[in-house]
């Protein structure tokens, strides 16, 4: 509308040089019935406005409008929106239409504003606004379009083929680019079609999906409604989205934490029980055999006690990773707690031997593993059950696998054991023995027997080995094989071992006082050696009992040489330093290479009694051990000598010491002392 009294428009030299006169243009702008202004978003100022815009904003002059700080009463969300437009315009030549309400003199003025980008001479992007008073809009429409503009919910309209028709401010602020299709926003685009299909059949569909946004991948909850585009009347989809990333990740994390073991990342016991039922059911449906393996690390406590918890943790992580690597894609691998793992292994029925997988675990772990950069052999014990033969439900299968595991733990020769009914009895018996042993320690029910070690030439006693017996109140004399493995397994061996050491030390002192200067030997189990108190206890012994450690030999099995016991070398060196002699027991039965021997401070070796049998057929192995021991300067004792032939063979082949039933069985203390006294008397004759 033109104001009355304004002069009519005249063309002044308007075609000078073929260009439109600038003044003419400016006066043309002032004649428009549309408010036109350029807004500098960076400074929140109007740079220029036409006459209509001055009217709308109730400004007396352009200078007055330019001086106004528009940021002063602009809400944060409007400011953000303007900045978003600025970015949009930098990317694309588009325009947006919005309904604005201005309050120039406190009175509301509603405008329909069309915004587009205009590049300033300094290169910055400003906003070109065209505003027209909007009287015909219904208040409801005005409010809803206002709400659409301000809501943080991302609202978009897509055509049937997925093209974007409209995005509200929030949607524009988030989308990867303004022309991204509905499908194109999904991280997994195949998720789009089912969602639209569902919206089509049910009118609305909802799901949480990972979508690509300009802030990277986010979790959005999308609600899709099938509708019609109000402009074209064509079918369309109205999509509203909210960002649920934090919520989703917190939930996922909480779920993950509740179902996984933090150290190894494997499923935990709770999650396992949930999954196992399903897996077992599926397996039988698919004609697969399911085997439940319980895997336990041997001597884990020893690693933890002697190398520290960090090393223990690395070991558990390594085992977890290895088990995951060996397991099949459908198998479940879980950590049940401590050093106990479970694997539910699935395979086609009859495709392998029933314990094939367990055996392959053992083979794999027979090789040394690198823990904190050092190679170490990790011993495993495995108990397993087959579904459904060994148990109908998870509880039963697990209990039975546990019994089998117990058997594997206590039997050094069988490390992968299937459940058998009789194991129940065995375990009950072991449990009873453990309880009994605790009492035996309190009540001092142990005895030491001594078995002489003699010279193969003179047949005189030159030494003796202390062997423990348990004087049980009901069962009578119990041999060590019946309780030492259980004492080892339960850790009671530390108390029992200390008792043995004290008694042998006193006996040695007693022999000294009788003027008998022969060395005594005692057995030390690997578990004792890794007990941090063991060394200090041994160091205190000479002072405590008056014994001569140089006349006490500690018999250790070969496993100390194999690196199975952490810090073995330091421990042996400390014992050596304290004056004791170190002897390797049952030599030849383990895997030890004689080459290991020279790495340790070894004074002697005892050839295991199994080799006495081969003496009759040449004794090649014994000869080999003898010559190597000789080269190392280690004293050799042959064990289990039962015949005169064996003794003379030993004598001929340079083995001077023997122990066995041929000379004497292990005998009670007083009997041993009287044997020595007799020998002394004969010698004195
Ligand atoms: P070991 O250290 O190899 O002890 C020798 C075993 O062989 C003894 O069995 C002995 O009675 C037996 N033996 C000796 N000569 C002969 C023979 O000529 N023929 C046969 N067939 N056997 C013979 P014992 O006393 O029953 O001890 C069994 C095992 O128990 C010992 O084997 C040792 O490993 C363990 N043990 C015994 N006492 C202790 C102890 O105080 N502490 C620890 N940690 N273990 C012990
Ligand atoms: Ca021994
Ligand atoms: Ca032995």
Shape designation = elongated
What fold name goes in the CATH topology slot of the largest domain?
TIM Barrel
Distance between the termini: 148 Å
Say which molecules are bound, naming each kind only once: ligand C2E, calcium ion
Q: Name the strands of the widest sheet in spatial order.
A: 18-19-21-22-23-24-25-26
The CATH class of the largest domain is identified as Alpha Beta
Estimate the strand proportion. 25-35%
CATH superfamily of the largest domain: EAL domain
Helix content: 25-40%
Supply the CATH architecture of the largest domain. Answer: Alpha-Beta Barrel
C-alpha-based Rg, rounded: 45 Å
Mean pLDDT: 88
> Helix- and strand-based class?
alpha+beta
Number of domains: 4
Give the structure's gist in a few sentences.
This protein is an alpha+beta fold and 685 residues long.
Give a description of the structure.
The chain is α+β, with helices and mostly antiparallel strands and 685 residues long. The protein has four domains: 122 residues, Beta-Lactamase; 101 residues, 2-Layer Sandwich (Beta-Lactamase); 162 residues, Reverse transcriptase/Diguanylate cyclase domain (Alpha-Beta Plaits, 2-Layer Sandwich), CATH 3.30.70.270; 256 residues, EAL domain (TIM Barrel), CATH 3.20.20. It is built from 23 helices and 27 strands. It starts with 21 loop residues before the first helix and ends with a helix. It binds ligand C2E and calcium ion (2 copies). The site of one calcium ion has 4 residues, from strand 23. The site of one calcium ion has 4 residues, from loops.
């Amino acid at each position: 509308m033109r104001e009355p009294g304004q002069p009519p428009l005249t063309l002044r030299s308007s075609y000078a040089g073929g260009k439109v006169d600038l003044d003419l243009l400016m006066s043309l702008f002032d004649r428009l019935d549309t408010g036109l202004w350029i807004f500098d978003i960076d400074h929140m100022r109007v740079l220029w406005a036409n006459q209509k815009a001055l009217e709308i904003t109730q400004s007396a002059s352009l200078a007055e409008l330019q001086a106004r700080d528009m940021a002063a009463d602009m809400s944060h969300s409007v400011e953000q929106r303007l900045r978003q437009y600025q970015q949009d315009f930098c990317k694309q030549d588009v325009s947006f239409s919005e309904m604005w309400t201005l309050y120039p003199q406190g009175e509301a003025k509603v405008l329909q504003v069309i915004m587009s980008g205009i590049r300033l001479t300094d290169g910055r992007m400003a906003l070109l606004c065209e505003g027209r008073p909007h009287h015909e809009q219904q208040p409801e429409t005005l409010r809803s379009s206002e709400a659409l503009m301000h809501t943080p919910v991302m609202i978009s309209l897509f055509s049937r083929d997925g093209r974007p028709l409209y995005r509200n401010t929030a949607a524009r602020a988030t989308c990867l680019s303004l022309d991204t299709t509905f499908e194109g926003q999904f991280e997994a685009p195949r998720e789009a079609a089912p969602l639209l299909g569902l919206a089509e059949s049910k009118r609305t569909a909802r799901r949480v999906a990972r979508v690509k946004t300009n802030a990277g991948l986010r979790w959005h909850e999308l609600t899709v409604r099938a509708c019609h585009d109000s402009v074209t009347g064509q079918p369309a989809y109205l999509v509203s989205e909210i960002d649920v990333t934090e919520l989703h990740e917190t939930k996922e994390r909480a779920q993950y934490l509740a179902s996984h073991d933090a150290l190894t990342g494997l499923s935990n016991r709770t999650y396992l029980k949930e999954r196992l039922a399903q897996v077992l059911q599926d397996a039988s449906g698919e004609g697969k055999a399911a085997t439940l393996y319980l895997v336990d690390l041997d001597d884990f406590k020893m690693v933890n006690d002697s190398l520290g918890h960090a090393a223990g943790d690395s070991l558990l992580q390594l085992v977890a990773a290895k088990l995951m690597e060996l397991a099949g894609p459908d198998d479940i691998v879980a950590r049940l707690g401590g050093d106990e793992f479970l694997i539910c292994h699935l395979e086609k029925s009859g495709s392998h031997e029933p314990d094939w997988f367990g055996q392959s675990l053992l083979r794999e772990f027979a090789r040394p593993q690198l823990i904190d950069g050092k190679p170490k052999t990790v011993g495993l014990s495995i108990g397993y059950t087959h579904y459904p033969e060994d148990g109908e439900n998870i509880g039963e299968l697990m209990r039975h696998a546990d019994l089998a595991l117990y058997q594997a733990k206590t039997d050094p020769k069988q490390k992968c054991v299937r459940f058998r009914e009789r194991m129940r009895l065995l375990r009950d018996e072991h449990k009873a023995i453990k309880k009994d042993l605790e009492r035996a320690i309190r009540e001092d029910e142990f005895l030491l027997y001594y078995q002489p070690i003699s010279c193969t030439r003179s047949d005189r006693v030159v030494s003796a080995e202390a062997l423990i017996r348990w004087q049980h109140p009901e069962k009578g004399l119990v041999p060590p094989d019946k309780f030492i493995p259980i004492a080892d397994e339960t850790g009671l061996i530390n108390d029992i071992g200390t008792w043995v050491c004290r008694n042998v030390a006193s006996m040695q002192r007693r022999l000294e006082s009788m003027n008998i200067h022969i060395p005594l030997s005692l057995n030390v189990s690997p578990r004792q050696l890794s007990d941090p108190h063991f060394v200090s206890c041994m160091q205190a012994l000479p002072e405590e009992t008056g014994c001569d450690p140089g006349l006490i030999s500690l018999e250790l099995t070969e496993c100390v040489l194999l690196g199975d016991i952490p810090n073995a070398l330091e421990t042996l060196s400390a014992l050596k330093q304290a004056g004791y002699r170190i002897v390797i027991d049952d030599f030849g039965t383990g895997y030890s290479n004689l080459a290991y021997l020279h790495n340790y401070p070894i004074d002697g070796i005892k050839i295991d009694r199994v080799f006495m049998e081969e003496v009759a057929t040449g004794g090649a192995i014994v000869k080999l051990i003898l010559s190597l021991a000789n080269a190392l300067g280690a004293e050799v004792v042959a064990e289990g000598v039962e015949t005169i032939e064996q003794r003379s063979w030993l004598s001929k082949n340079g083995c001077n010491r023997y122990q066995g039933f041929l000379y004497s069985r292990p005998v009670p203390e007083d009997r041993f002392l009287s044997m020595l006294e007799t020998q002394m008397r004969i010698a004195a004759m």
